[in-house]
């Protein structure tokens, strides 16, 4: 069967619906079945701007799903009232429906009705206005799927960067980092590289927390006291892992090219070099969930929303990666019996 890919619309006042439609214009759907989750009013609104030429099939249940190549299935998450996007507006209705779309996608994946979910960007401010107190998609996905440990991995053709901590204030990072956490994150990354990316014997680099990776304890003790013991423990389980590396030199002298993946200690330490090197085509993958989840590596883009200026490259890469991972996982499972 062709992979069925759920796609949540994101914040409908942002660029999510626009990049979805633009990406779908350039995707060959002979190998997958897209299932848009949102509202037909939203996609009709943005389709008038991008003129996608796509054909839409509104459905209420998965029994009505069309597998015709090029037919875009849409599940309306609410029929209570018309939805009128106001591009650039940060408001609670958009926040509420964006989260309802994600929750619907989670349910479809957990029930086996879809094989993966690709999430368009949400606004943390809008979802907070709607009463959702989550720092982002990742934490919501983990809670609703009853997943204890997840990992954000940024992916492009040449680089994979995982984050040991995600959406927490910088001042709190040292208190979150423990040897147990880092060891678990190294193990999760190693498993993901093998099972999701098909890398038989991956090589992982771990970054330090402090400037110059602590400079032998002169600029901080987290490296010898917390990070190095985690690396040693993982290596003791035959995981190929090295570090901790000073983050600036590691990227500056292109050492990252020698590794299959990198574990950064905090959000911006990994995200800034990744976005600089990915040239707008990066993908966010959440490891550890009981289903495949990818997303573009950008936000809602309120400043250009509704102006037909958003690039679809990252979203298309996220959709393509989700399809690849489903097919790769199916092949791996069949190989393993």
Could you describe the 3D structure shown?
47% of the residues are buried. This protein folds into two domains: 146 residues, Isopropylmalate Dehydrogenase, CATH 3.40.718.10; 141 residues, Isopropylmalate Dehydrogenase (3-Layer(aba) Sandwich), CATH 3.40.718. The protein has 337 residues and is an alpha/beta fold. The radius of gyration is 20 Å and the shape is globular. α1 packs across α2. 39% of the residues lie in helices and 18% in strands. The protein has a twelve-stranded mixed β-sheet, with helices on both faces.
User: What is the overall number of helices?
Assistant: 11
Largest beta-sheet characterization? 12 strands, mixed
Relative helix content: 25-40%
How many structural domains can be distinguished in the coordinates?
A: 2
CATH class assignment of the largest domain: Alpha Beta
User: Taking strands numbered 1, 2, ... along the chain, how are they ordered across the largest sheet?
Assistant: 3-4-2-1-5-12-11-6-7-10-8-9
What labels would you give this structure?
337 residues, alpha/beta, Isopropylmalate Dehydrogenase, twelve-stranded mixed sheet, 11 helices
């Amino acid at each position: 069967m062709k992979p069925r890919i759920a796609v949540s619309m994101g914040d409908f006042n942002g660029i999510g619906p626009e990049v979805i439609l633009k990406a779908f214009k350039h995707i060959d759907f002979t190998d997958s079945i897209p299932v848009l989750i949102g509202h037909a009013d939203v996609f009709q609104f943005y389709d008038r701007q991008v003129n996608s030429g796509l054909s839409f099939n509104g459905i209420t249940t998965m029994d009505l799903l069309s597998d015709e190549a090029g037919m875009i299935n849409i599940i309306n998450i609410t029929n209570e009232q018309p939805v009128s996007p106001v591009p650039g507006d940060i408001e609670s209705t958009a926040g509420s429906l964006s989260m309802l779309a994600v929750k619907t996608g989670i349910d479809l994946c957990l029930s086996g009705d879809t094989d993966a979910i690709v999430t368009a960007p949400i606004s943390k401010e809008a979802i907070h206005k709607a009463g959702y107190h989550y720092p982002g998609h990742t934490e919501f996905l983990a809670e609703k799927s009853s997943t204890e440990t997840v990992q954000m991995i940024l992916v492009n053709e040449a680089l994979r960067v995982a984050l040991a901590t995600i959406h927490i204030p910088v001042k709190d990072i040292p208190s979150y980092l423990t040897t147990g956490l880092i060891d678990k994150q190294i193990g999760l990354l190693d498993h993901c590289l093998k099972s999701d990316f098909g890398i038989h014997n991956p090589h992982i680099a771990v970054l330090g927390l402090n400037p110059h990776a602590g400079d032998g304890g002169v600029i901080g003790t987290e490296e010898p006291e917390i990070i190095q013991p985690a690396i040693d423990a993982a290596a003791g389980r035959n995981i190929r892992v090295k570090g901790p590396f000073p983050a600036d030199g590691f990227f500056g002298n292109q050492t990252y090219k020698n590794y299959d993946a990198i574990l950064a200690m905090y959000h911006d330490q990994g995200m800034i070099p990744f976005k600089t090197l990915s040239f707008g085509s990066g993908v966010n993958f959440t490891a550890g969930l009981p289903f495949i989840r990818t997303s573009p590596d950008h936000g809602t883009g309120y400043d250009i929303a509704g102006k037909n200026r958003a690039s679809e490259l990252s979203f298309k890469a996220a959709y393509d990666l989700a399809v690849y991972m489903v097919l790769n996982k199916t092949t791996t499972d069949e190989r393993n019996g």
